[in-house]
Specification:
Elements lengths: L9 H11 L8 E3 L1 H7 L3 E5 L9 H12 L7 E4 L3 H13 L3 E5 L5 H9 L3 E4 L4 H15 L2 E2 L6 H17 L3 E7 L4 H13 L4 E7 L5 H7 L22 H10 L2 E5 L1 H14 L6 H11 L10 E6 L6 H14 L3 E9 L4 H11 L3 E8 L9 E9 L3 H13 L19
Parallel strand pairs: 2-10, 3-4, 3-6, 4-5, 7-8, 7-10, 8-9
Antiparallel strand pairs: 1-2, 11-13, 12-13
Length: about 425
């Protein structure tokens, strides 16, 4: 499965670290008692979500542009879902270089706006990163710009490997490192750095089930393209691994696992609530794998979960938080049938208030349910203290005679008095 392209050496990674000095931030390694207790081992978090531009991608972008020297005098171009775009724009801006970026039409608005704010000329193309990469390569050919691949490039991989050097310098008792995987640039670079110094350290890659091409590609011994579903882990939604990165992963990575989308959402919430860290879906997949037991944290040494990025829309965070509150029993949705008379709504609201539930939202629904002409349905969204309290409030509403309306059957008309 050789690509014919030389993978970076530990010396290349060390040179990338020198190139990034003063630009790339050495991000903190944070302990997590909550996570350690839940998974039964010592877990620490490498908070790359606190990196400049919000993700590890700056490491590779700086390394690549530094390696180009005067060849990129006319500017650089790339394709990206967002994080790589911001990183290239930032690195190009430091050098005073022109930067063009092709992003999918479905890219997160926050990531597009951030790339523009960093000086990139952003063009929207298609719905996938692959389409954007094709457009960027063609632009590089016709405009004389230097193309910067987001992951399948030795210099980019070397830049991502500087994160591994930081881990080695920060602790001597690393047992395993759990790494988010999209195209494979980060895990390849980290694995090279770690295995060069500590071959016994386990490197575990994590993909999200909505887009996970590495397992079939590793099984086939060649890059396999998979379909990609809508995912909150958009930063790693790469449908096909690179030839170079697949070869490096095959040789250096100990295990690759896949996590469900819902587990990623819960990991994001845990990181917000307990670690006080805002982490995007792609950055939270390692924590999700540990919580689900797909990656182990057992053993005497430390398990490092790399939080690869923190660029997430506020709207997604609020949706995830609401979903978590519902799953945890702190958010209850009740649908009740009440008389369509003055004071009827006040009666049911007084009932739930007397049980200590806090009203978040109320909505009248008159269509789609089998209701008497003098009845209405109301949907109440309530905050509760937990599952037991939610069950108590629901029971009280039912006992008071507020039944849940039945859906209206097709072709049936409910007549008054029927």
């Amino acid at each position: 499965m050789s690509t014919g392209v030389r993978g970076p050496s530990i010396q290349d990674i060390e040179r990338a670290a020198t190139a990034g000095r003063g630009i790339v931030r050495e991000t903190p390694v944070l302990s997590s008692r909550t996570l350690s207790e839940r998974v039964g081992g010592t877990v620490v978090l490498k908070a790359e979500n606190l990196q400049r531009t919000g993700s590890f991608k700056l490491r590779g972008a700086v390394a690549k542009i530094s390696s180009l020297g005067d060849r990129c005098a006319d500017g650089v171009v790339t394709g990206s879902a967002g994080n790589h775009a911001q990183a290239v724009a930032y690195a190009a801006g430091i050098r005073g270089l022109r930067c063009e970026v092709y992003m999918p039409e479905t890219a997160a608005t926050a990531k597009m706006d951030a790339a523009v704010a960093l000086g990139a000329d952003v063009q929207l193309v298609g719905t996938t990163v692959d389409e954007c990469l094709d457009a960027a390569k063609e632009r590089a050919r016709t405009a004389g710009l230097e193309f910067i691949h987001p992951f399948d490039d030795p210099e980019v991989v070397a830049g991502q490997g500087t994160l591994g050097l930081e881990l080695l310098a920060a602790m001597s008792d690393i047992e395993r490192v759990v790494v988010p995987v999209g195209g494979g640039g980060l895990i390849s670079g980290v694995a090279i750095a770690l295995k060069a110094a500590r071959p016994e350290v386990e490197v575990i890659g994590v993909q999200v089930d909505a887009c996970a091409p590495f397992l079939p590609s590793l099984a086939a011994g060649a890059a396999v393209t998979v379909s990609s579903a809508l995912t909150i882990a958009d930063g790693i939604a790469v449908k096909r691994p690179g030839g170079l990165t697949l070869e490096l992963v095959q040789r250096l990575v100990d295990e690759m696992v896949v996590v469900p989308e819902d587990d990623v959402a819960e990991a994001m919430v845990l990181l917000m609530e307990r670690a006080k860290l805002v982490v995007e879906g792609a950055g939270a997949v390692g924590v999700a794998a540990l919580l689900a037991g797909l990656a182990s944290a057992s053993g005497p040494g430390k398990t490092v979960a790399i939080l690869s990025g923190g660029n997430v829309d506020a709207g997604i965070l609020s949706q995830i938080a609401r979903r978590h509150e519902s799953l945890a029993g702190h958010r209850l949705v009740l649908l009740a049938r009440i008389p369509d008379l003055p004071g009827a709504l006040a009666g049911v609201l007084s009932l739930v208030a007397a049980r200590g539930a806090n009203l978040v939202d109320v909505q009248h629904i008159r269509e789609g349910f089998d209701l008497h002409v003098r009845e209405t349905a109301v949907q109440l969204v309530l905050e509760t203290r937990g599952p037991e309290h939610a069950a108590e409030v629901s029971a009280a509403v039912r006992e008071a005679g507020y039944s849940e309306p039945r859906l209206l059957k097709r072709g049936r008309l409910r007549r008054s008095g029927a």
